[in-house]
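Sequence only, no structure available. Ideas?
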Amino acid sequence: MNLERASRFLICSLLLCAGVSGRAQQKAGLLLSTTSASSDMQQPFHTYWITREGASVQVVEGMRLLVPRKSVWWEIGVTELKHVNSEAGSEAVWAAPLGATHPRTHVLPVSDDDTCPDEINTYSVSWAGSDYVALHHAYESTCGAHPVAGEESFMARLDEMQHSEQRSLPQLKLSEVAGTEAFRAMELGLEVANSKPREDETPIENSEKSWVVMRSRGRYRVLGTTPVDRGKGGDIYDIPFDPPKSLVGSNDLSIGWDAILDKMPDALDAYTSPNSDMVVVVTARYLNIFDVKDRQIAARLARVPIESSAVIAAQWAIWTEADRWNETLVPLLRAAPYKTNQQASSL
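Reply:
I predicted one. Tokens follow.
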């Protein structure tokens, strides 16, 4: 009799463990950040921490750009720079481990090097990963006989943004990050771009430091860029090369893009969880969270209103890692609220 009871206890324990394991496998979290145009100087970041456990979806929002890096968390932010003797303002982007203090506004003291206090330099983030960031730099100066203005985009390492001003940041060569195969793909992309009709007949020149990462239609892409100078330039061309995981992280979409469009024709982008049981579809106004079964989009679990569809960062966590992220992210995002944190509306 005791043996029979022990057998029943063992069977029940195994079934209970299997149930717990099944629930744990369904737990996933997506940390997704967007940005939008702002009437003031500083670039706004809006982050959504979306967690799913079973059929329950929770969303916590906040105005911070947080980046998971190995065993520590970093934050990317913007500081507005003001001159004492000028109304002109500039912006600097910084990156640092959580806990480092960076002011929202910094007043620059008078210096003998201020030959042009009315010069404007603004930096903004167009994409951010665990180790790299894509920056956009716009400048304008009314000093001298002829005013100048221009723009440029480039990639930088987060580690080098911790103790460096933007002007001294090394702009990364594509081959440094992705190897010689990527550089050959850049040359091919440039050749294709120059073969197409363009308003400016001047050939696009190759600059291995002028490239950025972007995301659209469910995949990361590498684009070549040219700076804007005196109203000329600003060319963008495709580099036919899949960026490595060391650069962008996971680049897998377990559901075909056509299947996503069949479900949501207005989809702009989509992210599938590493365990392939959830997909987040981005449209112009919403984040749509769907269940996935047998690599097919199933029921919609929730829909979250968004202010902007310009996604600049996205990272997944699953199983126990999602629990660890949750402990860190929830208090940080709630400390920088955009609006009342909410449970996503079920549909």
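The first strand starts at residue 28 and ends at 35.
Hope that gets you unstuck.
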